Automatic annotation (TrEMBL):
Organism of derivation: Neobacillus piezotolerans
Name the record gives this protein: DUF3995 domain-containing protein
Keywords of this entry: Membrane, Transmembrane, Transmembrane helix
Domain of life: Bacteria
Transmembrane domains' residue ranges: 25-47, 67-87, 108-127, 167-185, 197-217
Length: 220
């Protein structure tokens, strides 16, 4: 085991307030799972069944939209349950029933890399979407929504700003808090954790800024 990455002798009193809280807090995983399941069922599966609330217009290919909503719902629900696994032994040790590798420890990076990747996508999607939709509603930019035969653009922008994008942002925050708990509970050293978290936060901020300007420049 790499001593630079792991420190099994880390004392609880060396953790700052956030780290102490994060190491003990498992509720973000459960709330995140509930948040994902509710969105999957009441939004994506509802739209897959032909529901039109939140879709103020007529899509060019309704069947394609319904299938995309169904697939998205399944993936979102799966991601919610994956968050639960990060606060359970399943996220650290391969189940014994798995042939050849059962009972072996799972390297934290094997879990953290995809989790943090998805977290970044969720947060950036939410932040950039809320900013650009706000600019659109303020009349500063004009967003073109393609693949619609008819559309109330103002209503869709409001739905995005007040409902869809906040869901992405909150889901990303819950996912990030769960990843933080997993990292600390897995024995990763504080030095690695703190440096990685700082670098990650800077990366997410820069990526959000990039996407906002990319959208604005594309519309210019």
């Amino acid at each position: 085991m790499n001593e630079k990455m792991y420190n099994l002798d880390t004392q609880t009193d060396s953790l700052n307030a956030f780290e102490q809280w994060s190491k003990k807090a498992v509720w973000p995983a459960y709330i995140g799972c509930l948040w994902a399941v509710m969105y999957a069922v009441f939004v994506r599966f509802y739209q897959a069944a032909g529901g039109t609330i939140g879709l103020p217009g007529q899509y060019e290919n309704p069947e394609a939209l319904q299938m995309a909503s169904y697939v998205a719902g399944v993936l979102i629900m799966a991601c919610g349950f994956i968050l639960i696994s990060l606060v359970k032994p399943l996220g650290r040790v391969v189940p014994n029933r798995v042939p050849f590798i059962g009972g072996k420890n799972i390297h934290p990076l094997f879990i953290l890399i995809p989790t943090l990747f998805c977290t970044a996508i969720l947060i950036v999607h939410g932040i950039s979407g809320m900013i650009t939709k706000s600019l659109h509603l303020a009349g500063i930019i004009t967003i073109q929504f393609t693949d619609w035969t008819s559309l109330d653009v103002h209503s869709l922008a409001l739905w995005s700003l007040l409902f869809y994008e906040p869901w992405f942002l909150i889901m990303g925050i819950l996912s990030g808090l769960t990843a933080s708990h997993y990292a600390l509970a897995s024995g990763i050293s504080l030095r690695v954790f703190r440096r990685s978290m700082l670098a990650y936060l800077i990366f997410v901020c820069l990526l959000s800024i990039y996407y906002v300007f990319a959208i604005i420049l594309k519309l210019a």
